[in-house]
Amino acid sequence: MKFKGMKQAGFSLVELMVVVGIIGILAAIAVPKLQQFTAKSKQSEARVNLKTIDTMQQAYFAENSTYAAIATVGYTKPTSAKYNYTDATVGSATGYKAQAAWATGRLCPNDAHTDTWTIDEKSIIENPTKGADEC
After folding, report:
1. Strand 97-102's sheet: what is its strand order?
2. Structural domains for the chain
3. Mind giving me the DSSP string for 57-80?
4. Cβ atoms of residues 118 and 99 within 8 Å
5. What is the mean pLDDT of the chain?
């Protein structure tokens, strides 16, 4: 009911539905991008920790002329780590390979692959599984 001298205030149902539709479209675009950025940030943890393992291995090799298991060189997994770190090949005088595998079995939503990173005595970090760009 409209009284004389009073202005109508508020939004119509059509205006409200248009705004809800726009927000839905923006969310549909933003959520996949957010998942990609989240996956990339988690993968950077693996790369940083593998470089730490590599530094420890190189220091151990300089002192002992051999590579060793990651526990032997002094690496301990951070308590907040989202990856499991293991020796892909046990160290030797010729080389080593360490591996970081995503702890929960999958990194990307709706994707069954395991995100795995490796590093070797040449300090080369590889990801043979598909990366965050393909989430």
Report:
1. 83-89, 97-102, 116-120, 125-126
2. 13-134 (3.30.700)
3. HHHHHHHHSS---TTTTT----TT
4. yes
5. 81
